[in-house]
Amino acid sequence: MYNYRINVSSKEYHMIKIALIDDDPITRRIVSEFLSSSIECEVIHSASGEEFLEKIGVSDIDIVLLDIILPGKNGLEVLTELRAKIVPPPPTIILSAQEKVDIAVKAIQIGAHDYFTKPIDLVRLEQSIKNIVEVKSLKAEVENLRYQIQKEVYYEEIITSSEEMRGVFNFITKVKDTNIPVLLLGESGTGKELVARAIHYYGNRSEKPFITINCAAIPKDLMESELFGYERGAFTGAYARKTGKFEQADGGTLFLDEIAELDINLQSKLLRVLQSKTLERIGGTKIITADVRIISATNSELTNEIKNKRFRNDLYFRLSTFPIVLPPLRKRKSDIIFLADHFLKKYSAEYHKPAMRFEKKVFQIFSEYNWPGNVRELENIIQRAILMSDSEVISVIDIPNLSPVPLSQLEALDPFFESLSQLPSLDEMRNLIIRHMLKREHGNISVVAKKLNIGRATLYRLIKKYELASE
């Protein structure tokens, strides 16, 4: 007996599940008994297309064997509906008593994997199924190899020589093999996702999935289904079951980026899942266990969000068991030369440019600049400079104006701050600066975003957060 199983990962397997749709009970019995004796599999019977399509909402089907002539919907109609409902659809083998070439061609055009005429050559059918299984196994191995490659790459992407970042490495080493929730704090562009990936791929969950979700990028109405998934028919448009990010990350890590932007009403549901390690899909009643390690990140002051009742205090304490603060680039200026050289080599090769180098004065400008966009800003500037340069040397004229705000101007604010009985928080200062710039530039979003050196999407999000749209 052949012992074929689909390789899901390097350590996890499951039995093949085959759906057989044929209105002839004799064909169903013969094919089912043959496959059960020759391939380790589970065969699910259906006498009609309607019966099968009803079953796929609750079953994970690996391969479909589909007759053409069926009561109700014919095989081609069932195949078309199947491919519309499940993405990606399971490989489908067509079975037909008709030897018409045009039907076979049409089935293949719709998306059938193979086509057999009756009486079925069972040995050929077995070989076709074995080929499908081997392709699935190969894809799983490639995916596992991708994880292993990522494991080796992402730590190396954190380029540093500074003591501040060595402290971050020390924290990564201490926490990587635990299940403790980690909260990454730091300004935008400091490399929070790189640190999250390093914790995962160098930890004991490295062979399992690393799933990311940006809480600021997904509308709040869709966020619940993204996190927890839904059952078929849970709402209009839910044609098939969908697994959420928690289920996808089972055994691995879920990275919740921009966690401060998560809707307050959804925060209680997230807290409940974190506490119980169980969830229910939208529209479902089945309790699903999710063994997930949580890493979250934010560039906001969560204590202020709690104070303003935009973030739950209990969720904050659950997520911040092990906080790691990433220093801004202006606090690790010794890294600028190493980071710049790394990005220069990376993008010179990517853009098929010859070996390039920096003019000496460029490093002087880089060291004097305050880098409000941090490492991401440095990376973007070097990408642009490589494209702009007409020689092998990146000169001052190839980079945008990086004139820093003179320290004397910043020091002129000292008397103002000393006159205050209580200093404003960084979040409050950001609110005031954006409000001032919008007023000064007459609400021109593009100009304000450029002068503040942030993206338009980020500026729109902050305008919404501080309720400045009416102004």
Write a structural description.
- The protein has 20 helices and 18 strands.
- It is of the alpha/beta class and about 475 residues long.
- It folds into 4 domains: about 5-135, Rossmann fold (3-Layer(aba) Sandwich); about 155-325, P-loop containing nucleotide triphosphate hydrolases (Rossmann fold, 3-Layer(aba) Sandwich); about 330-400, Helicase, Ruva Protein, domain 3; about 405-465, Orthogonal Bundle (Arc Repressor Mutant, subunit A), CATH 1.10.10.
- Strand 3, helix 1 (about 25-40) and strand 4 (about 40-45) form a beta-alpha-beta unit.
- The longest helix has about 35 residues, at about 120-155.
- It is elongated and about 90 Å long.
Task: List the main descriptive attributes of the protein structure presented here.
disordered N terminus; 471 residues; Helicase, Ruva Protein, domain 3; 5-stranded parallel beta sheet; 4 domains; 20 helices; Rossmann fold
Q: Secondary-structure map with pairings?
A:
Blueprint (H helix, E strand, L loop, with lengths): L5 E2 L5 E2 L1 E6 L3 H14 L2 E6 L2 H7 L7 E5 L7 H11 L6 E5 L4 H10 L3 E4 L4 H33 L8 H13 L6 E4 L6 H10 L8 E5 L5 H9 E2 L11 E2 L1 H4 L4 E5 L6 H13 L1 E2 L8 E2 L3 E6 L3 H6 L5 H7 L2 E4 L10 H15 L6 E2 L1 H9 L5 H15 L4 E2 L12 H5 L2 H6 L6 H15 L4 H8 L3 H10 L6
Parallel strand pairs: 3-4, 3-5, 5-6, 6-7, 8-15, 8-16, 9-12, 12-15, 17-18
Antiparallel strand pairs: 1-2, 10-11, 13-14
Helix pairs in contact: 5-7, 13-15, 19-20
